[in-house]
Specification:
Mean pLDDT: 92
CATH architecture: Up-down Bundle
Low-confidence stretches: none
Helix content: over 70%
Number of helices: 5
Number of strands: 0
Largest sheet: none
Strand content: under 5%
Structural class: mainly alpha
Number of domains: 1
CATH topology: Four Helix Bundle (Hemerythrin (Met), subunit A)
Amino acid sequence: MTIMTGYEIFWPLLAHVALVYGLYALLGARRAKMVRAGNAKSNYRENRSEPAESLAVKNCLANQFELPVLFYACCILLYVTAADNIVAVGLAWLFVALRYAHAAVHVSSNDLRYRSPLFAAGYLTLAGMWLWLAAWMVMG
């Protein structure tokens, strides 16, 4: 097993942070467009009448603070335990790529035929990361 020498495990984590910031920007742009068009009020405090175009982004953004929280924790633990080798980093990049694909479907067609398998693949990839960490600690 090859042990990484730098901070490679944090690049996928930062790539996911970039996704979150991108989704915030998209949400702001879609909301501003709806307000300018007169299709929404500028007060989104209660979000009771969020237009569908921005609601999809809002829901996608909320989703980035669910399963990915476990991803952040796992990345940090992989680093702390020195289990952040090529396998772990590869799984981390795969997870982030799947999150990008899932988000792209979520904010566009929102077609569950594509979104659900992408979510499931990310879910299983993250499970693989946690299993890798557990195996590393047991064998360690």
